[in-house]
Amino acid sequence: MISVIVPVRGESREIAERFRRIAVDARAELLVADGGGDPATTEAFRKIGARVIGGDGTRGARLAAAAREARGDQLLFLHSDSRPPENALDAVARCLSNGASGGAFSLAYENAGPGLRWIAAWANLRSRWLKLPFGDQGIFCRREAYETAGGFRDLPVCDDLDFVRRLRAVGPFRILADRTTTSPRRYDERGALSQVLLNWRVQAGYFAGVSPRTLERWYNGK
């Protein structure tokens, strides 16, 4: 079984429909790491068959809590504003059965113009060269690899980068050609260049050892 884990906080109820196909698939279970917000969103996920794991704290802490409740021997972590490829479950199962300990999908953006297509292309090059995908691409792994890597840590931002750095040291890590399609809302709100520069600043701060709370403040534009 594949356990698909989606962190949700402050999303609209319509977001649940992105994951209906997974929720009704007998090969998978859908878990929502619920950080609060609109109760209607929580109810919408329950109606499609998701298990809701409530809890406060950072996204990393909530993902870790949901992973502890997961029943599957394979784990797939998806952001709530990302739409997995149609064949996501088959692709994950095939990749892991062929010897990978973990991996991620490639990236695309919804309704992408030239700027967003360039950003996605750069992200895909980075992922393939450095094996450093981010959470909006959909990160997956074997459960034993997750446990060996130490799972998600209690981090408000860069929780995905932090986890992948440890996961890729466990065993073979693959980037699939299949694409997760992600909302460009942050780029639309802040402007593509501003968001790219902000992302680079936060990532550089993470590698330089800047405190998680400071990174969160930077990411929120404060």
List its salient traits.
222 residues; Spore Coat Polysaccharide Biosynthesis Protein SpsA, Chain A; 8-stranded mixed beta sheet
The SSE order reads EHEHEHEEHEHEHHEHHH
**Order of strands, widest sheet:** 3-2-1-4-7-6-8-5
Task: Calculate the mean pLDDT score and round it.
Answer: 92
Enter the CATH topology name: Spore Coat Polysaccharide Biosynthesis Protein SpsA, Chain A
**Cα-to-Cα separation, first versus last residue:** 42 Å
Question: The biggest beta sheet, please?
Answer: 8 strands, mixed
Radius of gyration: 16 Å
Structural class: alpha/beta
CATH architecture: Alpha-Beta Complex
CATH-wise, what's the superfamily?
Answer: Spore Coat Polysaccharide Biosynthesis Protein SpsA, Chain A
Question: Low-confidence parts, pLDDT < 50 over ≥5 residues?
Answer: none
Helix content: 40-55%
* Number of contiguous helices: 10
Q: What do you see in this structure?
A:
- 44% of the residues lie in helices and 21% in strands.
- It has 222 residues and is of the alpha/beta class.
- The chain has one domain (2-219): Spore Coat Polysaccharide Biosynthesis Protein SpsA, Chain A.
- Helix 2 (39-47) links the parallel strand 2 and strand 3.
- The protein is globular, with a radius of gyration of 16 Å.
- The model has no long low-confidence stretch (mean pLDDT 92).
